[in-house]
Write a structure and sequence with these properties.
globular; Amidase signature (AS) enzymes; homodimer; 11 strands; alpha/beta; 11-stranded mixed sheet; 431 residues
């Protein structure tokens, strides 16, 4: 499959990166192709809060004239407006911070720029990366939510506006919008990507990750963000690689998956026949969704102390409700919840003795109709609490013709093994 | 011991808080007493980068006229200049950020204000909370370092300028300055205090904590910061409380403790006779100091990506050296180090089956002479890596007449148990 037949703005990041590194593609042309696509589609999708077109074009020319900088040389990228950027305002999706111009880049943004990526713009986040939606629409259907909180990043990558974009997940804010938009989303192992310069909500949960249109692409991004070059090792994505051992894990929330997700599951079971074995989770894990909700509420209420104390009237009703819930949880219950989390994280290790990755639902179903909610992060909560790396794999369509997929979950710290397995599985699911 | 014979600026926080809550002491009088002490001593000690005297006086009057707000009602506090404050500039001890005015309070600052504390000023930090010193001097001897990186907070509390101050620890930045200044320093369990709005260096290590002049005082602060009211439960500090079981833990670095620390240790062993038992650490823990150094360097180099990429000429030589070291560590080695950390954190749990807390050295010895270094965090590195809560207890003097003490280390998440044990031990050590 030659890249020459793919429009530039739809090239996978890893393919574009290879062409850019060999000087067979110019950064300026790729940036222009993305800007053209944005010009064509942004009025409909509304993925961006800020575009930095002139700066991006200048940067692309500079990169074309100089040496190859790194793994992301010449690749345009977008950044959820929860990450500080020194050259574009950062408002966290909240009127409290309208027009705020940070002095420095978030560490993850600076790492991408160091690797040669070109910042094209800031993408829409829900209010303070919580439930109250932004303006972004699902590129597949404008009356459906793109998911959140990393709404603009998922929508922009899906729609061919960008090959790569950064997001964060505290409940389901990477995997859910990836599922609703039909794009690959990657949540690395907790604590492996620096959060410096990203608005903080929860010490236990917040994780920096990103979106792309293939597993190899998010692996490239992951290598830069984690500082672990092994993630992007081409050998992991060799077509002759040994088949991974997949644990089929419907989770305790299975009954809440709708027909679309259950059909995608059945399709995946068939495609993976012989490579997947059913897996029972520890019984106590039926509590993890509740624990995650309580940990998120407790920690968010405290991380957003300035906002709740001094800008209460500028917080949405759903966010105030979450904060009220969080403040009602005692320190004793929170301590119990963190202890339960630590215990479950230890138990999780054993699941990966026999499996390279677990297959699990990403979402209840397709992106719901309506823009007043970003949908339910139900199927992401436990994995986020466990701190495990996750990759969403889009491969099917639901009853409305919107994307459906499943996620693959890896052992803590074994992101390379997960990404290799995800690539293998994704090839089978899409063929 | 009646409070009426203690000058206001030397009152313990918990005593002042009780008087303030009963309206037997006015916040305005306590704030004035602290400001008077600062006026008298600041030229010598240089603990502050910014004072907010007028705002503090106005706030104190407001508190005196209204209802009792919370656990810290009317107590003046200082904040390391690594925490954002909406009403005072925050420069992280770096020329890169000179004059920077954040829009919001760090979560820890907002939590203290919510509990009724009165912000008096921002205290000196070393450059970006690393090794390059600030201007602060040791209040006990102006030619000796106060330790770092929370230099100003430790010095101000020691010197009676403030009853409470916030700091952070990544290697030894709370316990070491507490030891060198002779004040109680408290590093809570990792991840239990929100870091929102605090300049981030290391996901694995950064911990928010504080200083006061008694264990009960840091417990009061800890209750507010962690949201766990049990930490300040007066029952834990009852004179009739059962004796804690103390593990005497010289650590693998014992040979590097100097005569002053070794004498303080001998003194403590005698004072605790019958309540302490010697404890051997797992053999693999001899590696933890190296692991901590590598984790800190790897993560700091990436968290400070914006600074190293765009403001290299404004970083000190020692910080650039640490960053260079960090960038030379491969992702593979870092992954091994984090795995070793997780393993050691699991092993640490068993140490507390038989012990409520471990006694260990805090520092090599007294504060070294000279202001071009803040001293060696050697004896703090392993405990920070393990994420365990620590309290420094000052109780002795070294050969130069400067303070010497030891730290007590608790089980992860068992901060209340640690603080109760620390109170008990401190009473014995000081009597």
């Amino acid at each position: 499959m030659s890249a020459t037949f793919t429009p530039l703005h739809l090239l996978d990041a890893w393919q574009a990166a290879a062409l850019l590194a060999r000087r067979e593609l110019k950064a300026i042309d790729l940036v222009r192709a993305c800007l053209d696509r944005i010009a064509e589609r942004e009025a409909q999708v509304q993925a961006f809060v800020q575009l930095g077109a002139d700066t991006a074009l200048a940067k692309a020319r500079e990169l074309d004239a100089g040496p190859v900088r790194g793994l992301l040389h010449g690749l345009p990228f977008g950044v959820k407006d929860l990450f500080d950027t020194f050259d574009l305002p950062t408002a966290y999706g909240s009127p409290i911070y309208a027009g705020r111009q940070p002095q420095a880049d978030a560490a993850a943004v600076a790492l991408c720029r160091e690797a040669g990526a070109v910042l094209l713009g800031k993408t829409v986040t829900t209010e303070l990366a919580n439930m109250f939606p932004g303006v972004t629409r699902n590129p597949h259907h404008p009356e459906h939510t793109p998911g959140g909180s990393s709404s603009g990043s998922a929508a922009a990558v899906t729609d061919g506006m960008l090959p790569l974009a950064l997001g964060t997940q505290t409940a389901g804010s990477l995997i859910r919008p990836a599922a609703f938009c039909g794009v690959v989303g990657y949540k690395p192992s907790h604590n492996r990507v620096p959060r410096a310069g990203v608005k903080s909500l929860s010490e236990t949960l917040d994780t920096v990750g990103g979106f792309a249109r293939s597993v190899r692409d998010v692996a490239l991004l992951g290598a830069v963000l984690t500082g672990d070059a092994r993630l992007a090792d081409p050998a992991a994505f060799d077509e002759q690689a040994a088949a991974p051992r997949i644990g089929l894990c419907r989770t305790f929330e299975w009954a809440q998956a709708d027909d679309d997700t259950q059909q995608a599951w059945a399709q995946a079971e068939m495609a993976l026949a012989g490579h997947g074995t059913h897996l029972a989770l520890p019984a106590s894990w039926s509590e993890l969704v509740r624990v995650q909700k309580e940990v998120q509420a407790f920690e968010t209420a405290r991380s957003l102390s300035h906002e709740r104390l001094r800008h209460r009237d500028q917080l949405s009703a759903p966010l105030l409700a979450l904060i009220t819930d969080g403040l009602a949880i005692s320190g004793e219950i929170h301590a119990h919840n963190l202890q339960a989390t630590a215990g479950a994280r230890q138990q999780a290790q054993a699941l990966f003795d026999q499996h390279d990755a677990l297959l699990a639902p990403s979402s209840v179903g397709e992106a719901p109709r309506g823009l007043d909610s970003t949908g339910d992060p139900l199927f992401c909560r436990s994995w986020t609490l466990l701190g495990l790396p996750c990759v969403h794999l889009p491969f099917a369509r639901g009853h409305n013709g919107l994307p459906v997929g499943l996620q693959l979950v890896g052992a803590y710290g074994a992101d390379q093994r997960l990404l290799a397995a995800a690539h293998w599985v994704h090839q089978r699911l899409r063929s």
